[in-house]
Amino acid sequence: MTPADSLVPASRRNSGFTLHRFANPGRFLRLSGAVLPWVAIPGIGLTVAGLIWGLAFAPADWQQGETVRIIYVHVPAAWLASAGYAMLALCALLSLVWRHPLADLAAAEISPVGAVFTAICLASGSLWGRPTWGTWWVWDARLTSVLVLFFLYLGHIALVHAFDDPQRGYRAGAILALVGVVNLPIIKFSVNWWNTLHQPATISLFGAPTMSLAMLWPLLIAALGYTLVFVALVLARTRAAVMERRIRALLMARAELAA
Predict the structure, then answer these.
(1) Residue 236 to residues 30, 113, 233: CA-CA distances in angstroms?
(2) Which domain covers residue 235, as residue numbers?
């Protein structure tokens, strides 16, 4: 324990203060640099394997036929759309409550990645809806709530860059992220709460899956690959943001010395 640590209450050292041990930019760059290849390479490999297995070799559905193959693109993207926003809200909490120095940077890099995955979810869902429902879009509870999620991501991106003072932008974005969390349970339970066209979940933590294992395995592999790719993209973008901030600080210090 350092002398500075001895001045901090034990409760704080064991909670929020402990989080700041991982907020040092140099430590983050070293740790993320070591982790990134182990996340990115398996993520790409699993995503490609899951998509090839599902799109080319998995059996067609007895009712939906070949159109069911869109689930190997759509379902993992939908999972990451919601999970990514949960990560965004967690970073917002760390920023507002514990003033975690890297939380704001991470949140700013999560939202563009989450928006892309949400867009993939919406686009692939529309491609599936056209032959299944006879239309590209319906104002279904699940679809509408996911569209709201997409706008929340875009709103966060806009707020973060809307102020001359970056801290004001980060704070406004964090507040929006926490308020938007209310949309996540709506997305999850909308098919149970309302009479919707969207089918119920086929995979549950408390019940057996309602799909064939020949279709389930490539879906799970693709979902794991998507998740690792999402984490890799966020890590890479956050590393770039940290290095950009350090370079900017060095340039400003050099300019002050020159003046």
Answers:
(1) 12, 11, 5
(2) 37-195+213-258
